[in-house]
Amino acid sequence: MLQPLNQVGDAEGCTFDNGTVTTPPGFREAYRTFAEGGWTGLTADPDYGGQGLPLVLGIAIEEMSISANLSFNMYPGLTIGATEAIHAHGTAEQKQTWLPKMISGQWTGTMNLTEPHCGTDLGLLRTRAEPHDDGSYRINGTKIFISAGEHDLTENIIHLVLARIPGGPPGVKGISLFIVPKFLLNDDGTPGERNGVACGAIEEKMGIHGNATCVMNYDDATGYLLGAEHKGLRAMFTMMNAARLGVAMQGLSLAEVAGQNAADYARDRLQGRSLSGPKEPDKPADPIIVHPDVRRMLMEGRAFTEGARAFAYWSALQADLAAKHPDAAVRQSANDLLSLLTPVLKAYFTDRGYAAATQAQQVFGGHGYIREWGMEQFVRDARITQIYEGANGIQGLDLVGRKLPADGGRAIRAFFETVQAFCDENRDDKAMAEFTGPLDEGLGRLQQATMWLMQNAMTTPDNAGAGATDYLYLLALVSLGHVWAQMAKLAQKRLADGDGNAAFYENKLITARYFLQRVMPDSAAHLARVEAGAETLMALDAAAF
Amino acid sequence: MLQPLNQVGDAEGCTFDNGTVTTPPGFREAYRTFAEGGWTGLTADPDYGGQGLPLVLGIAIEEMSISANLSFNMYPGLTIGATEAIHAHGTAEQKQTWLPKMISGQWTGTMNLTEPHCGTDLGLLRTRAEPHDDGSYRINGTKIFISAGEHDLTENIIHLVLARIPGGPPGVKGISLFIVPKFLLNDDGTPGERNGVACGAIEEKMGIHGNATCVMNYDDATGYLLGAEHKGLRAMFTMMNAARLGVAMQGLSLAEVAGQNAADYARDRLQGRSLSGPKEPDKPADPIIVHPDVRRMLMEGRAFTEGARAFAYWSALQADLAAKHPDAAVRQSANDLLSLLTPVLKAYFTDRGYAAATQAQQVFGGHGYIREWGMEQFVRDARITQIYEGANGIQGLDLVGRKLPADGGRAIRAFFETVQAFCDENRDDKAMAEFTGPLDEGLGRLQQATMWLMQNAMTTPDNAGAGATDYLYLLALVSLGHVWAQMAKLAQKRLADGDGNAAFYENKLITARYFLQRVMPDSAAHLARVEAGAETLMALDAAAF
Questions:
Q1: Which of B364, B390, B416 is where one domain is finished?
Q2: What are the chain B neighbours of A538 within 8 Å (beta carbons)?
Q3: How many domains does chain B divide into?
Q4: Is B271 found in the same domain as B209?
Q5: CATH number at residue A286
Q6: Which of B204, B275, B364 should we substitute to test contact with A (largest number of A Cβ atoms within 10 Å)?
Q7: CB A363 within 8 Å of CB A298
Q8: Same domain, A497 and A537
Q9: Are A88 and A15 part of one and the same domain?
Q10: What pLDDT digit, counting tens, does each position of B324-361 carry?
Q11: Tens digits of per-residue pLDDT, A280-327?
């Protein structure tokens, strides 16, 4: 249902006409089917019509939906974020008013943060919210880059909008969050009068053409305060982990679907002969999957997607534990690890997702550059994931500036202990040495980089910024290396037990080996770059660039 | 003239109507001005109207032209390749007939290699060339991905076409090269009757929309044999070095223009405060160029483009020496090095060019994803450079399979000696240690990788394929490291002499330091991957991917 609409969504895109946005052909029907099937409320609170399923299941479904059609997935995907914000910060009445129809998919939701002069630095935000006698607010301002800000899929759209209440503190401490529906509600809860919010234009973009990226104009729009006055940013942040994990899944999902296509092509396309002699002598040439360099591209994608998927499931499990486990200590520990690793998930998965999509495209040679094959769309679509929901450079800063030092480094120490314990437990297992050896080495480099930052970033904060991205990559490599080593351990056990599909476990071992042999060595260069510090980066005069 | 047409070329693209291709608005006028200015014949033979300037000057001009408008540049750029083939392999009469008007820009030229089932593996080629009584041939077949195969810029288009003469040997040994003009010539040399070649369609692509990528149908077209029968591939290969250096320049040029735009944006865009305290306290925020991670992106681009430019000039000089030096030993040595390093130039420059364009786009945040800023076009245009003129994986195979073992490894040994001599000469120069140290280390890794391939690729050829791309990167790092260390040496001398612009030389030292501190460390991982061999790559069953 979704995959057949992916290319038409790209080719036709959304169209804008005087405030109205029309989604690509087929999107309306697909959305109706999607919502009617209950897919919009999988992980939502049953008290408001959700199915209450764990996030670990939610993201597994999410991956398939994104692989099929990212642009489509964003309409219900962004709704989940808005729903969670209302669920976490709304009054009982607000929750009763908005959640059931958002969870059922009858309405969608959006997040309105960015303004033309203000992206990462939300302290510069100018949109105003004037209190009104009836307790509501009048919102005025312009927001840009609002995904799914306007469309024809649902009868109402619920915007969550960051704005300033006059008289509040300057900067990020004076920002509040508001619910601003496209249509105000009648007393019976149905959409009534049009609110003072309208889409002024949609952007021409590199990709995700099937999703409307809107300029939203708020002109005396009625808004309802969500959460406390001036605490809007905190409210936004509470759902950041989930939203960023969602974008991480986008990177993974596009790598996966691009990789599946590349593998199919590599099995079909006949070109050249194997270096070790013809493999299909009765054909005019061998399929290109016989060439080691083609396999290198496929294996690199595979080692990423399989490792990333396992890591994502584990991360979603931490989110579920943090939200629902009865033991406060377990909740805290899960929340620590999830918070620490969220920027890693977001930045590494999307950088690698883009790289993997590009490499899958490369397998197609010239055909990869041609629209009809669909590969170049994966690359264009993947590119946005590195940018939105906090550009990847910001993820590095979030990691080294906030997550690493939080609570005296409690989270990173717990991470070290977990990985170290795994290496120690398996130290005498000879069959595990090829996995634990490189993992242990990577962990040592990560610890060394951490120490370096602790010693050098306090006195010279630019050292933290200079090493942020490389530190993030180093943590990502150790995280995925840990996951791969665990999978190898289990695969060995299953094979020894003669349990299940032997080929499946053999392939896991091969791919684990690929990761630890051929990907983990990058950790040395990342450490070198962290330790190189800020000096060379900051030395050039700005005008000299 | 060219830069203002770059975005319109992308937005409007070429249009196809019943065999006719119309280039984007403004391209015709720009092409006329370009040709009238003499820019099409800069490096061509003065005997046929060229200016006989060295390639080292030609590529310097080329860079500016490509940075301004890649799609436009390809029309005259591809003509140079065709001109060189006719110059090298044509009879005196052929040269007199075709060259003057191609060099003057009155006609353009194309290269026709690829067929639907045959890209890299030209042995599968099917286009036929039947001898005709008058000494010409009748060409029949279909070629795809023919850049500039049809357009409205010139009164004639001269296609060079690979085809098989019936009765020749199978595979690549039975391929011949033909001159096939769009219009046959009248006795006075002016275009006359239409030849049996027509554009059947143009491709919808990811980028380079301003250049028509054509399906070319040959239907009893008259062609003239260029060079010897069945030696067409060799004729093609003679101009491969120049063509691949040209594509390398495309990678560099797009990185350069994208980087210039990113630097401008980073100086203008106000967002956040410097980690070391506000730099422009009177403004609402600091320009983002104060942030180390933004500088990391800019410096990475800069360390690539400046190093790559110096390396490209040096390579073009080798081409000039190989073509024109009176001493045969100098010609041979220059040709050795150029042949060895051509795949490095092509693959590394275009991979890095794409990465640098992507990173420059990243500096723009969300704005980078929007069409009107122009950044995403650089990325889409850069993507093709990794694919055409031999996909980058093929460059690695050319390097380890052909170039490395050629003449008993004479070229790579000469390369080692040159770099080693530089390190040795500067061993006691303390001020050079920060440059020669990492270079020496990189060289050691490259030598180790070379040794490993020698010892392991003969018995297991897949080991060569498995390490090809990483070996190429390792050679690229040492090549650019060498260039950077040489520039550092010269900068130190100029500074010591108080000679010229001190800031310029200081900036060279800073950028050299960046490269050797932060880029060269990747050499360790490349070595590890070469030494990992083919086993992990080849272990998975093709069906399991």
A1: B390
A2: 292, 295
A3: 3
A4: no
A5: 1.20.140.10
A6: B275
A7: yes
A8: yes
A9: yes
A10: 999 999 999 999 999 999 999 999 999 999 999 999 99
A11: 999 999 999 999 999 999 999 999 999 999 999 999 999 999 999 999
Tell whether the model's pLDDT for residue A245 goes beyond 80. yes
pLDDT at position A241, please? 80
- Residue whose pair of structure tokens reads 């599968």 in the numeric block: B124
- Catalytic amino acids of B? 389
Please tell me the distance in Å from A188's CA to the nearest CA on chain B.
39
Same domain? A285 vs A211: no
pLDDT band at B236 (very low <50, low <70, confident <90, very high): confident
Give the minimum alpha-carbon distance from A507 to chain B in angstroms, rounded to a whole number. 6
* Residue of chain B minimizing CA distance to A527: B521
Q: Flag if A371 and B538 touch (Cβ within 8 Å).
A: no
Q: Do B540 and A510 touch (CB under 8 A)?
A: yes
B178 φ, ψ (degrees, to nearest 5):
-130, 145
Q: Are residues B195 and B252 in the same domain?
A: no
**B chain contacts of residue A302, beta-carbon cutoff 8 Å:** 545
Asked whether residue A284 is domain-assigned, the answer is: yes
Domain hosting residue B444, numbered range? 401-544
Determine whether the interchain pair B503/A468 forms a contact, defined as Cβ–Cβ distance below 8 Å: no
Q: Does the pTM of the predicted model rise above 0.90?
A: yes
Cβ-Cβ contacts under 8 Å, A448 against chain B: none
Please give the sequence-ordered ranges of beta strands (E in DSSP) within A167-291, or none if there are none: 175-181, 183-185, 191-194, 197-202, 213-226
Sign of CA dihedral B125, B126, B131, B137: negative
Residue at which a domain ends, from A230, A261, A293: A230
Q: Is the ipTM of this complex over 0.95?
A: yes
Query: Do B163 and B68 share a domain, yes or no?
Result: yes
Which residues sit opposite A185 in a β-bridge? A191
Same domain, A152 and A269: no
| Residue A160 pLDDT exceeds 90 | yes
Smallest Cα distance from B520 to chain A, Å: 8
Residue A402 is encoded by which pair of tokens?
């906030």
Tokens of B49: 């109207």
Residue B138: CB atoms within 10 Å: 17
Q: Is A235 part of any domain?
A: no
Q: Are A474 and A494 in the same domain?
A: yes
Handedness of CA A192, A196, A202, A203 (dihedral sign): negative
B109-140 pLDDT, tens digit each: 999 999 999 988 999 999 999 999 999 999 99
pLDDT band at B244 (very low <50, low <70, confident <90, very high): very high
Which SS3 state, helix, strand or coil, does residue B139 take?
strand
Q: Could you report the per-residue pLDDT of A338-348, keeping only the tens digit for each? A: 999 999 999 99
Which residues from B are below 8 Å from A292, CB to CB?
462-463, 465-466, 468, 534, 537-538
In a domain? residue B235: no
